Amino acid sequence: MAYAAVSIAAMFSYRHAFHAGNHADVLKHITLLALLKYLTQKEALTVIDTHAGAGLYRLDSDHSHTSGEAQEGVLRLSAALHDKPGAEVAPAIAGYLDLLAGLNPDFGASHDPAALRVYPGSPFIASQFLAGRHKLKLFELHPTDFRALSGNIGQLELGRGAACAMQDGFEALRPLLPPPSRRALVICDPSYEMKTDYGRVSAVIGDALKRFPTGTYAIWYPLIPRPEAHDLPKKLKTLASRAGRAWLDATLTVKGSKLHKTVDGETLRPGLPASGMFVINPPYTLHGELKAALPQLEQWLGQDHNAAHCLSQGS
Ligand code: SAM
Q1: What is the pLDDT of residues 63-104, one digit of tens each?
Q2: Residue 82 alpha carbon to ligand 1 centre in Å
Q3: CB of 69 closer than 6 A to ligand 1?
Q4: Which of 28, 112, 156, 216 has a CA 20 to 30 Å removed from the CA of 6?
Q5: Catalytic residues, which ones?
Q6: Which residues contact 194 (CB under 8 A, 6 or more apart)?
Q7: Are 185 and 174 in contact (CB under 8 A)?
């Protein structure tokens, strides 16, 4: 019982507003845009976001200022491109910058980081591709973020094409597969504040692949010195290979993860150093999009000699 109480407290302490626009969001949302661009060109698609967050975030909010994480992500990327109109930008990154410009009119083509006030979360990004036949199903368990999500999605007037529920996204996924459209993109983006999230991700994806082997599954994971985090992409590779499905794994490291001491003698671990996007049944276009984007992300977001990227795939 004590364990459950600690776990619930951990879940409710996570608020994505502190992390919005960090380097992990940059990698995740660029990958998501590339996936949605391709998958929504065809017949009806059901997009299921198991851990939706609030949908939209203010980069000038107290949350964002307190953490400063966007400084290592979207603000660093835009600072690298600010007033460099001739810069060659990979198409997937250009699409991401266009999305940001749509939300932040003064950001425009100048990519001035000072003009970035609003940052889109995965539900907002998916909503941009929803026209007509596609469906969006969003799950968020935190009451405050769920209220914000419902308000943000409500304002977009997507009608019956989009639905939000304050439900456990891991549990909500099962009965939705296979969807009536027989085409789906599942975004699985837990906070991993609770160690049990790692096991729940592999269990839910293993089950989903049995129920609906042809769906596209996009899973974000942190690359941190913790055995569960290290094992997760390996487990996902095994699940995909056993199901005979293709997979792609893209990682971005922006700094080292070594402990360091402050002047007061306190031992600190730097914030999140790296993360990955694991995609099962990726569209054939995704590898090329990320192959062009990842070296640029490494160059523009890398903070020290540990900066690196890796792109692998298999079937
Ligand atoms: N996908 C969002 C994006 O890219 O903008 C960010 C999501 S954030 C990393 C994870 C979210 O999952 C948090 O808002 C948290 O409150 C929520 N959450 C945690 N456990 C959950 C669960 N079991 N089911 C649904 N939501 C959950």
Answers
A1: 766 668 899 999 999 999 997 878 899 999 999 999 999 999
A2: 31
A3: no
A4: 28
A5: 189
A6: 7, 10, 11
A7: no
Tokens of 192: 């991993």
Query: How many angstroms is it from 242 CA to the middle of ligand 1?
Result: 28
**Strand arrangement, sheet containing 308-314:** 162-165, 135-139, 46-49, 184-188, 216-222, 274-280, 247-253, 308-314
Local confidence band at 145 (pLDDT 50, 70, 90 cut-offs):
very high
Ligand 1 pocket, 72 CB below 6 A?
A: no
Separation between Cα atoms, residue 224 and residue 99, nearest integer Å = 29
Atom of ligand 1 nearest to the CA of 12: 16
Quick one: pLDDT band at residue 1, thresholds 50, 70, 90?
very low
Contact 299, 81 (CB under 8 A): no
**Crossing angle for the helix pair 74-81 and 91-103, to the nearest 10 degrees:** 100
Binning pLDDT at 50, 70 and 90, where does residue 9 land? low
CA of 210 to the centre of ligand 1 (A): 24
Grade residue 210 by pLDDT with cuts at 50, 70 and 90.
very high
Q: Which residues pair with 201 in a beta bridge?
A: none
The whole-model pTM stands at 0.93
Backbone angles phi, psi at 49, to 5 degrees: -110, 105
Whether 289 is in the pocket of ligand 1, judged by its Cβ within 6 Å, is no
Whole-angstrom distance, CA of residue 221 vs CA of residue 28: 10
CATH no., domain 2-314: 3.40.50.150
Give me the residue spans of the domains in the chain: 2-314
